[in-house]
């Protein structure tokens, strides 16, 4: 039997919804701008309208929503995401569930993308995978035996808050010297401003590296060191079969991936050197929608 | 039907073997000194003799061995444990398997203890648990859904090598500023020598704290900070339902546990504060043997 589910990618910029088949293909997709200046109730109504249209003519068995965190996946509540201003403790699953007669699930966007990459992207065929999105921030999702590890309070995969250097920079509500404060796109941009005096963020730093700018190359080199440390920690904690690296910063994959694989060896037990697989994500911006559609297909751990 | 299995705790000091029933009770136990000055083949022969005696009169369905690491649980090989000098790449499972007709399993001692605490100790009834042994070194074991997470190369739970402070002390073959170098019994002893000039290791530092010695209290306070950071990292990575704390250092539980629960809050996302459970281990030195007996009862992840 064909299994079709709806995935919804609720982002701070766009609200996307689509019907996904059992092979991970998006059969139909709808996208509108997320009107974050309106009440959550308004956006939820739009979401319910999109779902209704998509369910017309498709036999849908479940609906999954991926959203920026923090959120409570067990209770289906959005807590207070920086990327969705005004969404304070919103019982999103209840609001959508009231409008449909199939099960509705919620998880954070990184966990959704992790599931998609594990099933249909760079993690497929592996017993376990750890998805890392390196973008404005750093997020993650750990998939084991085809299931997302949510954790007791839903905070598994919140690797951006991992402490790597207690005397390092502070950053929003994260720990001082967190992985995110040391190795995200924002941290590359911050160092670009501090060391090079440029305002163009990570993109400008990468551009300067390609032009042969040495101080810019040192910024990227530091980022690679912190990425290697963070990935080594994850290896010595859960030792996944593969790390899948996504997010906007990985568009500079040609500057990052090969030296990162090398640098990682410096922080691993000798027996693990050259054994740990790092692969670029394959599904790009579709991962969130596809992964959301998978939330109802597998149980979470 | 009664399920009985044999657990073997191969330590650097003692070799223990016992028959464990389905409730986790040890029905019969044998213990001898581990003759580490002899060849591994000699010790394995002793182990096989103990197994033969234990199998007499008991219907045994599997045998599990817990050993110091590093080892390869998938291939059943002991690699080169510092605590078992001379055991270089020993195919232990093959050697024992040749002598019996029930399945033989191998995992490291911390993973075995983690399984035992999850099934019959402080982790029972929880969906997931992370066992941390704080002793000469720091080890760990992550149990999810009743199964030990071994990882792709068997290095899951090797949390002693987690980097917490890259400019921190170096330590055997671990990363500079590793969790073990900052928060183990050995590190407490090292700081005792450096700051107090005492040679009695962690025990003497704890004794001095109880006598009201302020500089000794500061050493313990630093240890609590690093333990809190390490546990916060594990929380933001896998968010287990409970942390189970064992090992020799936890004999000073009265000095550690209450302040550690408090300090942990400093490094957690606000929504997680006072939500993360830290519990002392319950099975003591029996955990290794009981957990080894469980290796064949559940699949590993």
Q: How would you portray this structure in words?
A:
- The structure is a homodimer of 301-residue chains.
- By secondary structure, chain A is an alpha/beta fold.
- Chain A folds into two domains: 4-109 and 286-294, Nucleotidyltransferase, domain 5 (2-Layer Sandwich); 122-282, 2-Layer Sandwich (Nucleotidyltransferase, domain 5).
- Chain A is built from nine helices and twelve strands.
- Chain A has helices at 40-55, 92-97, 109-120, 179-183, 185-196, 201-210, 214-238, 253-264, 287-294; strands at 4-10, 14-20, 26-33, 60-67, 71-72, 77-78, 104-108, 128-134, 138-144, 147-148, 242-246, 278-280.
- Chain A has a five-stranded mixed beta sheet with strand order 3-2-1-4-7. Chain A has a five-stranded mixed beta sheet with strand order 10-9-8-11-12, sandwiched between helices.
- In chain A, strand 11, helix 8 (253-264) and strand 12 (278-280) form a beta-alpha-beta unit.
- In chain A, 53% of the residues are buried.
- The model of chain A has no long low-confidence stretch (mean pLDDT 95).
- Chains A and B meet through strand 9 and helix 7 of A and strand 9 and helix 7 of B.
């Amino acid at each position: 039997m064909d299994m079709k589910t709806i995935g919804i990618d609720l982002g701070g910029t766009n609200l996307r919804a689509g019907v996904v088949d059992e092979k991970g293909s998006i059969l139909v997709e709808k996208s509108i701008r997320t009107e974050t200046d309106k009440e959550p109730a308004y956006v939820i109504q739009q979401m319910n309208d999109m779902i209704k249209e998509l369910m017309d003519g498709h036999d849908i068995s479940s609906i999954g929503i991926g959203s920026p965190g923090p959120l409570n996946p067990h209770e289906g509540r959005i807590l207070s995401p920086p990327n969705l201003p005004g969404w304070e403790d919103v019982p999103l699953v209840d609001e959508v569930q009231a409008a449909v007669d199939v099960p509705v699930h919620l998880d954070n966007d990184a966990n959704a993308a992790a599931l998609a990459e594990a099933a249909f992207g760079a993690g497929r065929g592996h017993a376990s995978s750890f998805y890392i999105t390196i973008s404005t921030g750093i997020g993650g999702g750990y998939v084991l035996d085809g299931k997302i590890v949510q954790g007791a309070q839903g905070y598994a995969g919140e690797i951006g808050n991992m402490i790597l250097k207690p005397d390092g920079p502070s950053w929003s509500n994260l720990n001082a010297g967190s992985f995110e404060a040391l190795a995200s796109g924002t941290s590359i941009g911050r160092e670009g401003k501090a060391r090079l005096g440029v305002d163009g963020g990570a993109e400008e730093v990468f551009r300067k590296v390609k032009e042969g700018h040495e101080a810019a190359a040192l910024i990227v080199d530091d980022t690679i060191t912190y990425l290697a440390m963070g990935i080594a920690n994850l290896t010595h904690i859960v030792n996944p079969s593969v790390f899948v690296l996504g997010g906007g910063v990985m568009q500079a994959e040609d500057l990052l991936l090969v030296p990162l694989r090398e640098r990682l060896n410096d922080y691993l037990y000798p027996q693990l050197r050259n054994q740990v697989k790092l692969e670029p994500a394959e599904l790009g911006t579709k991962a969130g929608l596809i992964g959301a559609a998978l939330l109802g297909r597998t149980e979470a751990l």
